[in-house]
Amino acid sequence: MKKVFTSMLLLAAMLVAVPAQAQGVKFGVKGGYNITSMKIDDAAASVKDNKNGWYVGPTVKVSLLAGLGVDGAIFYDQRETELEGTAEPIKQQSILVPINLRYNIGLGGLAGIYGAVGPQFGFNVGDADFSLKNAVSQVEDKFQLKKATFGINVGAGVYLLKRLEVGFVYNIPLGNTADYSEGTALSGTVEAAKKFDVKSNTWQVSAAVYF
After folding, report:
1. Which of 3, 95, 155, 173 has the fewest CB atoms below 10 angstroms from its CB?
2. pLDDT, tens only, 95-142
3. Is residue 207 within 8 Å of residue 165, measured between CB atoms?
4. Each residue of 145-198: pLDDT tens digit?
């Protein structure tokens, strides 16, 4: 946990210090909804419900030359997933750090559109290990979230008066979101554990206000 928060403080310092030397710097607050599609590769268990989540946090964007710019943010992100045959949902709490290269196209002085692409780093700050008694197989399954994740964001949106933005992002994971193990010991019966990869593709819809 200490390493996670130390990393967040360093990233926050970088976001503040670097743009301070540039022109066209705007700080703001961004938040929105997650629409996550989680898949367990080849496992007998399946995802019953990918519930919508939400995220919020500070953001900064820097205008460079000829429509180019960068933006970054530090989000608190929360989402839930429910597996078939289990009573309790899996609650995922993370700190997300997206850093995007963006291209802005002005539509007059009042509005414009933009496209963005860049890496996103994720750090789990909630529970990581979940024990799930599967009602179908009657064994205890294990679901373990990764401590850190990495992916690529691709997105676009519109801005108004250079202060309001509405956009969407599609996050493509590069690596697993979690590990899922079926068939661990339960009631004195030992089954051979089978491990499966878990991946999550996520749509994010956001609104931001810049000051």
Report:
1. 3
2. 999 999 999 998 877 899 999 999 999 999 988 888 776 655 566 778
3. yes
4. 899 999 999 999 999 987 999 999 999 999 888 888 776 554 455 555 677 888
Give the separation between CA 62 and CA 104, rounded to whole angstroms: 11
CA-wise closest residue to 77 among 119, 40, 125: 125
Q: Which two tokens stand for residue 108?
A: 């007059």
DSSP type of residue 162: T
Tokens found for residue 196: 């499966």
| Contact by Cβ (8 Å): 86, 132 | yes
Across the strands, what pairs with 100? 71
Compute, in degrees rounded to 10, the torsion defined by CA atoms 7, 13, 19, 21: -140
- Phi, psi for 100 (deg, rounded to 5): -120, 145
User: How far is Cα 50 from Cα 32, in angstroms, rounded to an integer?
Assistant: 16
Rounded Cα–Cα distance for residues 164 and 36 (Å): 25
State the virtual CA torsion across 47, 180, 145, 78 in degrees, nearest 10: 10
Strand positions, DSSP E, the chain: 25-40, 47-63, 68-73, 75-83, 90-106, 111-124, 129-133, 140-145, 148-160, 164-173, 178-184, 194-210
Nearest to 73 by CA among 62, 61, 63, 58: 58
DSSP state of 89: P
